[in-house]
Design goal:
The chain has helices spanning 2-31, 47-50, 64-76, 93-105, 117-120, 130-143, 174-194, 208-214, 217-222, 236-250, 264-267, 272-286, 316-325, 407-419, and strands spanning 41-45, 81-84, 109-112, 153-154, 206-207, 226-230, 253-259, 292-297, 328-336, 346-348, 353-355, 361-366, 372-377, 384-388, 395-400. By secondary structure, it is of the alpha/beta class. The strands form three sheets. The protein has an eight-stranded parallel β-sheet with strand order 4-3-2-1-8-7-6-5. Helix 10 links the parallel strand 6 (226-230) and strand 7. Mean pLDDT is 91; it is low at 14-34.
Length: 420
């Protein structure tokens, strides 16, 4: 009798385990894929306005109309973030808040890419040390909790090699540079935890050559697995190759914290059409580059790479960026022949993959001017290829046919489902 009860208890326990584990897997399915964007971070930089004019426009309330217009344009591209370069010193806090408030009004998260003016000697500020930089940064976060929102990014020291003790390629202090980045990241992360804000503080943007030297696997791991580079190159192919090289060498994901064309010394002069074609080629390649987590186009206005010239119509490049930042969305339901939702079906497209959720639903971004074929697979079902019609297919029902399995195969699958 005891043996009978043991068997019953085992069966009940196994059943509960299978049900709960499968439910847990279903919860996980919802978090895999199902994206509306190609990249987690899609940003456009405003440095020429938000940093360079910080003191000049500090008391100029009429400048708010330009701030709002800039934010409206950036939001319309489908950007997730706007990069703001206003210094963190108390003198500039009022205008920084004006930039942030406008970003919020326009539905944008903020990528803070300012610095302490004393690090590079901006606006006549006296130089500061590494230790002072860390203390100032931590206190800035703790004193201004309302400045931040979940999903923001905070870079304490963009291109840190340009100030303080200098460039680790030349000053012989690579270990000190690494230690400073790690200590400051820890201080910023601790401060954001204290104010209860989920803000990423490990996008330590740096020159590509500095990144190749600094970001070994140990340092990258200590900095949360992200290598952020301000990187300007001659060709899209080199851009992709450099990202893959940095990712392989560091063991981390790469973020292009600055990229754009033309840089005259690198790209020469470009017409409006040539600029748009270069960016389109680069983004077509980057969208398939798995090592890339996000990117920040430099710059919105004011430099050779600008996409909205002052008092002029948007350049063609703005439309190109919008095409990639605000892609078409293809969605549907994966069901069986009986109409039952299939949970956990893998949906693989040219650009992104997804997994169907509770109701069999999935979605993924794609480019409207490119043909899209998706492949759907799920255990016990025959694989299926579906060609998307961009004119009519916005949401479809895709039926998978059960794979014909013999009695013995079913038996072994049942045994595996219990014990594996």
């Amino acid at each position: 009798m005891k043996f009978k009860y043991i068997i019953i208890a085992f069966i009940i326990g196994a059943s509960i385990f299978l049900v709960t584990s499968r439910k847990a897997q279903e919860f996980n399915y919802i978090a895999i894929g199902d994206e509306d964007k190609f990249w987690k971070v899609q940003s456009i930089d405003t440095m020429k306005y938000s940093r360079d004019l910080s003191r000049e426009k500090l008391g100029d309330k009429s400048f708010d109309s330009i701030i709002d217009d800039t934010m409206k344009k950036i939001s319309a591209t489908g950007a997730t973030h706007v990069s703001i370069g206003t210094p963190y010193d108390s003198e500039f806090l009022p205008i920084l808040k004006r930039w942030v408030d406008s970003a919020r009004k326009n539905g944008l998260k903020v990528w803070f890419r300012g610095n302490w003016s004393g690090w590079e000697g901006w606006f006549g500020y006296p130089k500061i040390s590494r230790d002072e930089h860390i203390v100032l940064t931590k206190n800035f976060i703790l004193k201004n909790p309302n400045l931040f929102k979940d999903g923001d990014i905070f870079t304490a020291c963009p291109e840190c090699e340009n100030g303080g003790p200098g460039d680790p390629r030349h000053n012989g202090d690579l270990s000190g540079h690494r230690a400073f980045l790690i200590k400051e990241y820890a201080a910023a992360r601790s401060a954001f935890e204290k104010i209860g804000k989920n803000v990423r503080a490990n996008f330590n943007s740096m020159n590509g050559d500095v990144a190749a030297l600094t970001m070994d696997k140990a340092t990258t791991k200590a900095l949360g697995g992200i290598v952020a580079v301000d990187h300007y190159v001659a060709t899209p192919d080199k851009l992709v190759a450099d990202i893959k090289r940095l990712s392989a060498g560091s063991g981390g994901k790469v973020v292009l914290s600055e990229f754009g064309v033309p840089i005259p010394d690198i790209n020469g002069k470009m017409s409006e059409l040539e600029q748009a074609k270069w960016i389109n080629s680069a983004l077509e390649k980057l969208v398939k580059t798995e090592e890339l987590e996000g990117l920040n186009y430099w710059v919105s206005v004011g430099g050779s790479t600008e996409i909205w010239p002052r008092n002029s119509a948007p350049r063609m490049a703005a439309q190109t960026i919008t095409k990639f930042f605000n892609p078409e969305i293809f969605s549907g339901f994966i069901v069986s022949e009986s109409g039952k939702p299939i949970v956990g079906a893998a949906v693989k497209g040219e650009y992104r993959s997804a997994v169907s959720g509770f109701s069999g639903h999935f979605k993924m971004p794609y480019l409207k001017d490119k043909p899209l074929k998706i492949e759907i697979t799920s255990p016990e079902y025959l694989a299926k290829t579906y060609t998307v019609d961009p004119e009519s297919d916005k949401q479809v029902e895709i039926i998978l046919v059960k794979e014909k399995v013999g009695l013995m195969s079913r038996f072994w699958k049942f045994i595996k489902s219990i014990f594996i």
